[in-house]
Amino acid sequence: MTTALLTHADCLGHVTPDGHPERVARLEHILHALEALELKRVTAPLAADDDLLRIHPESYIRDIRVARPADGFAQIDGDTFLSSGSVDAAYRAAGAAVRAVDLVLGGEASNAFCAIRPPGHHAEFETAMGFCLFGNAALAAKHALDHHGLNRVAVVDFDVHHGNGTQGLLWDEARALVITSQQMPLWPGSGRPEETGVHDTVLNIPLAPGSGGAEMRAAYETKAFPRLRAFRPELIIISAGFDAHQDDPLANLNWATDDFAWITAELCRIADEVCDGRIVSTLEGGYDLNALAQATRAHVEELIKAAR
Ligand SMILES: [Zn+2]
């Protein structure tokens, strides 16, 4: 079986102002780094509004569409901008997450990686935030639960920033376990251990500034992995942000490329144990272009190894 790679050229049409870290070149570097890998390449569809309505109200979806500028930029948050291509990109990003779930649950791929932008894990119910428009990972979880009828889905978010949007969208969802590690303190400020959700299905793992791969591995081995195994998800969704890398300019963790390979391999091992290896991974952050490309490649290579 294979690893699916979902992406679309529209995700390169989401342009941000000069100097903005979440830029087109991120995805270009990633796609170049993945070029030689053996992957089932799938064109990401536009998400249906019915899918988006699983996580956002109609008024919010309309507001995002209406805010799209004909040219130039529309600013909708302190650091979130729309260009003329942003709405299509956001619909492709969300559509990739939905399609990836369909492929993996339908047995057409063992696992999948969505090379998409804008990212999604900061987007809240009716608020765009932190470069994010639609909650791609939370949508993947809801689609797996509500459309495919799964009973238990886990989201693991190793982006250096707290996945506040995913946490909020799944806060009262007893069928979803949300595990998110983040540098603390760091923007957006949430993600304390006492944030556990309505049904105690949220696990926040703060990591100290300056800490590295050893601290991360210990935290995942003692806190995240036992919780994940005990929950026995039928699908694991990864919010794959690569900004905990030591070269990343937006944060102060010191993970090496090898640490991203390690965490991916461990998640694949658990997926093999509990859910026939079913993993859907979606791109979140990562702002040093070379580190991002290398870490993403290491992540996808582990998915490929696990799919064999
Ligand atoms: Zn991030």
Question: Features of this protein?
Answer:
binds zinc ion; 39% helix; alpha/beta; globular; His_deacetylse_dom; 308 residues; 8-stranded parallel sheet; 16% strand; His_deacetylse_dom_sf; histone deacetylase activity; Histone deacetylase family protein
Account of the 3D structure:
The chain has 308 residues and is of the alpha/beta class. Helix content is 39%, strand content 16%. The protein is built from nine helices and ten strands. It has an eight-stranded parallel beta sheet with strand order 2-1-5-10-9-6-7-8, sandwiched between helices. The longest helix has 20 residues, at 86-105. 56% of the residues are buried. Residues 159-161, 241, 243, 284-285 line the site of zinc ion (ZN). InterPro entries: HDACs, His_deacetylse_dom, His_deacetylse_dom_sf, Ureohydrolase_dom_sf.
